[in-house]
Amino acid sequence: MPSAAYNIIRSAIVAKQQVFATYHGHSRELCPHTIGTTTGMERVLCYQFGGNSSQGRIVPDSPDNWRCMNISEMVNITVADGPWHSVSPHTKPQSCIGVVDLEVSH
Length: 106
Hints:
By secondary structure, the chain is mainly β. Helices cover 11% and strands 48% of the residues. Strands 1, 2, 3, 4, 5, 6 and 7 form a 7-stranded antiparallel beta sheet that branches.
């Protein structure tokens, strides 16, 4: 059975909502694109459009802003309506999630 956090993020994908969370001590502003599991661990592939990361401040519209996250390590998760952020075209297939449950419709 999916966790409450998984269900929140999954609903955000369906509605194309932004997700705000803390991950590894950094505030993240995200647009989740793909959700599922890898070896039973809940994971999400997001485009990070704001906040911080272990690599420092986020550069807007950079193709380097893709993040694969373990949902169990995300805290203070909230969702909000706002502009959808992504980088297109996708140049590499995702390898973050082994069993895909849902991907954002483009």
